[in-house]
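Inverse folding, one chain.
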């Protein structure tokens, strides 16, 4: 049944098919997917948070926190909602999402379309009153409005409003579709931003882990600067990576030259290479989340051996459907055990040292 629905959705414009996917999730259609529970090979404690398994839903799928429980029920160890901005915004003009079927990739220039932080806050308050929540961790990915005059304050507003409901927060400084956002990855800007965030969080007693999410299109100096700044300022984690503005020569789908961020299979290698470099530059002292082009347990295992403690998926889910989630986790258990690991944490960075 799920396979038929997926085949049908693939014929529709991507944004409309995403809308229908969210509707089907809300309807409870995917409720009885069996999930891996209490597996000691996959279990980890990171930032004092228990992760039942390392596979998370990447930001951008559930921009408005509409299907947190439903996506956790699919078998994810954690889900990340957003990117959310202080004010609601429509984003760029449509069409703005393109499926590159032959390349197993997507290009999007959505531009942080979302209903804004107050709308998300309402949903999170309601959710916090539900005593029957599924087990799983919630990350909130925050950004700035495209027309803001006060970049840093946008992040602070989101943290102060949404922080209490998150298990961890992600400062998104890497989406390619918001003007000047990626400039926040430059050393002086990043130092200032993190400084302001840390001061705010001390003042307001917000003790949630703060992660940053970076682009795969950085030069060596930028990579080193981000690693050193993260270590110096006590950043809790780095998500590697967002979508890419580069276009590998191997792409052959008709939408390959659309403007925006490329995700899926073609970015697996560059984002995994960046993961390795950041693991080296940070000396393995900051937990990294590997994301970009994962579709199988083997991909996930490669990310882990390249330095990721946790992993996320988005585009792979669009092409493979929800069955991919438990498949990736099962394959991961098999691959870890075949290599003699008793727990996933032992394999983190094994290919890098
Ligand atoms: C349609 C679409 C929308 C996205 N929106 C966001 C977003 O709002 N915030 C963000 O941090 N990343 C966003 N991403 C990037 C993903 O979270 C992820 O970093 C990237 O797609 C690489 O992973 P993947 O190859 O598994 O898709 C988006 C990706 C896609 C395909």
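Residues assigned per position:
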């Amino acid at each position: 049944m799920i396979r038929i629905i997926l085949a049908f959705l693939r014929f529709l414009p991507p944004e409309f098919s995403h809308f229908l996917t969210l509707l089907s999730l809300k309807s409870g259609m995917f409720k009885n997917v069996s999930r891996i529970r209490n597996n000691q090979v996959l279990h980890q404690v990171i930032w004092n948070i228990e992760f039942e398994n390392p596979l998370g839903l990447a930001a951008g799928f559930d921009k408005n926190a509409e299907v947190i429980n439903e996506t956790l029920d699919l078998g994810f160890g954690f889900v990340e909602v957003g990117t959310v901005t202080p004010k609601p915004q429509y984003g760029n003009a449509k069409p703005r999402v393109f499926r590159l079927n032959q390349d197993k990739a997507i290009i999007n220039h959505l531009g942080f379309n979302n209903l804004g932080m107050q709308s998300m806050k309402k949903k999170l308050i309601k959710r916090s009153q539900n005593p029957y929540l599924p087990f799983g961790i919630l990350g909130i990915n925050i950004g700035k409005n495209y027309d803001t005059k006060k970049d840093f304050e946008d992040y602070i507003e989101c943290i102060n409003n949404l922080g209490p409901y998150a298990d961890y927060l992600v400062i998104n400084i890497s989406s390619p579709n918001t003007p000047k956002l990626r400039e926040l990855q430059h050393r002086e800007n990043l130092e200032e931003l993190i400084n302001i965030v840390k001061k705010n969080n001390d003042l307001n007693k917000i003790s949630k882990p703060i992660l940053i999410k970076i682009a795969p299109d950085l030069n060596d100096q930028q990579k080193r600067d981000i690693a050193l700044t993260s270590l110096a300022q006590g950043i809790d984690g780095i998500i590697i990576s967002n979508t890419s503005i580069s276009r590998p020569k191997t792409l052959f789908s008709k939408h390959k030259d659309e403007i925006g961020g490329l995700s899926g299979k073609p970015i697996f290698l560059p984002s995994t290479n960046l993961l390795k470099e950041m693991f080296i530059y940070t000396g393995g002292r900051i937990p990294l989340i590997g994301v970009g082009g994962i579709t199988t347990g083997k991909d996930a295992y490669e990310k882990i051996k390249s330095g990721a403690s946790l992993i996320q998926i988005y585009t792979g889910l669009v092409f493979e459907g929800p069955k991919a989630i438990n498949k990736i986790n099962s394959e991961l258990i098999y691959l870890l055990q075949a290599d003699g690991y008793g727990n996933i944490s032992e394999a983190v960075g094994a290919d890098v040292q």
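The chain is about 35% helix and 15% strand. The radius of gyration is 19 Å.
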